[in-house]
Amino acid sequence: MALLTLSNAHLAYGHVPLLDGTDFSLEAGERVTLIGRNGAGKSSLLKILAGLEKPDDGQLQVQGGLRRVYVAQEPAFLEGATVFEAVSEGVAEARSLRARYEDHSPDEDLDALQTRIEALDGWTWEQRVDTALQRLQLDAATPVSALSGGMKKRVALAQALVAAPDVLLLDEPTNHLDIDAIEWLQGLLNNWNGALVLVSHDRAFIDAVATRIVELDRGRLRSYPGAFTAYEATKARELEDEGLANARADKLLAQEEVWVRKGVEARRTRSVGRINRLQVLRAQRVARRDQLGQVRLALDAGLPTGKIVAELKDVGMKYGDRVLIEGFTATILRGDKVGLIGPNGTGKTTLLKLILGELEPTSGTVRRGTKLQVAYFDQMRAGLDLEATLADTISPGSEWVEVGGGRKHIMSYLTDFLFSPERANSPVRTLSGGERNRLLLARLFALPANVLVLDEPTNDLDIDTLDLLEELLQSYAGTVFLVSHDRRFLDDVVTSTIAWEGDPAFGGRTGLWREYEGGYEDWKRQRARGRVAANAANAANAASAAAASAASSSAAPAQATKAAAPRAKLSYKEQRELEALPARIEALEAEQKALSETLAGTDIYLKEPQRVGLLQARHEAIDAELMAALERWEALGAR
């Protein structure tokens, strides 16, 4: 039996129906990702499933005793609350009931209270909160107001998880999280036993978490079992078939309209049945909700810069005793697409300002190129006037936009970004989060610039717009600096990556930044190989130091050297292990590739859904086994 079922739901804002006879059901253990265009109604549907809003018509059936918890895009907390107090709100009922039980009045029904407390597992709510705080790496005493956006999202997730819900509903959970936090959240959700419905546009995150994808398209829901890559292939075929069917229907309607308007002779022979069919065709055409158009993006690359945009040599940056950047050297050329990766607070913005001349380093030198025209996406977001109209936001005081060396009317330009002429004079505050980001892109692309600085441009953008933005940036003649947590977007756009590697847990020093060729996955592979080599070198150095120490402490140095030599060689067993490791590594890589292909298809989700979790767990386990095998191979080879 389904945990919850939505039947024939209708919801409209203005003249556009967001839900148009929508049906949805959720089974136990499912992890469903809800996708769709900006403004399509995904957040509204999620709130309906959470019981926070009601549809205009239709019915939501919920299994008896089902516990649902909703986490909003921008979670709100009580003013002045500490992290412990905020997370404790997730067990507010259990906390209140136990307080009533401990301070009960003489006429209180203690048996009923005790039964309800036990049902909520309320006797141990403090331990549950403490466990959640440890699991999510949160400090109980810290005021929530002092936390970053990403840490506030962690507090909201902790608050939701301590409630032990049967169904968890998340709206854009990866917003404000850095890449490490997103990968942590993936593991958390994959190991969680309850059902999950989430709204997300992060394609790598969807692939890692979802067992089913549900698309809200023109008021209707379409379900696709499997990962995002399987959905993309199926959706492309569906749209092609729909286009052909609509074209045939339009052709038939046009033929019938010609027939009914023929002369007197034709009217004598026309049949009542044929006229009725024409009326049906007309009604179907009026009722059809065609697919929304595609965003049309174009960039004005401005005047070309010099060949070198920036050259950094041994650059360092300190604020007091805090070292953000140390000994960084890189050369940025015209046309480079550079991604910046690092946890929040490590200095990505400072590094960008050094490259572009807004800050001067405390050590080292920066030589900057000529004719730089820089446009910033993040600065425009901060300066967005919510009361201004869409037209004034793009082109204040003018009906025309200069773009790509030509002039375009503001109405036509807004239409390119899927804003109808009727909405051109609407205030910005009426837009959804994704529509505001699309408006900011329209404003950014109207500026002549040969250097683009994009700080989290993918937040709230729908998947279609993401794909088109990727294509635009790939073909852009200028230089791009991209800060993003969307791993697939980074892989598809950037040509090089500057990554923070100052984590002391992996031997990094504070302020360490390195440049790598390629995108996010390229960086991960190169970093892993580098760590394996460093570990092997450290092991070899330690072995050499130990041998030298033993030799120097021996009364007979010559004899000690001879005795140490055999210990440095591989034993027979180790030699056989070294010979077998390449085949072992190759077998693990082949197994992982086969698992990826299986999880990317649809058959496993349709025929054996119970195996999905096992296959995903095995896929992750192979990563650890591969790393261990590579480290062992390097260590034995070094000896």
Describe the 3D structure.
- The protein is of the alpha/beta class.
- The chain folds into four domains: 4-231, 3-Layer(aba) Sandwich (Rossmann fold), CATH 3.40.50.300; 245-287, no CATH class; 308-518, Rossmann fold (3-Layer(aba) Sandwich), CATH 3.40.50; 531-638, Orthogonal Bundle (Helix Hairpins).
- 47% of the residues lie in helices and 20% in strands.
- It is built from 23 helices and 20 strands.
- A six-stranded mixed sheet has the order 5-6-7-3-8-9, sandwiched between helices. Strands 14-17-18-12-19-20 form a six-stranded mixed sheet, sandwiched between helices. A three-stranded antiparallel sheet has the order 2-1-4, with helices on one face.
- Helix 3 runs antiparallel to helix 4 (110-119), helix 9 packs antiparallel against helix 11 (272-287) and helix 21 (572-600) runs antiparallel to helix 23.
- The protein is globular.
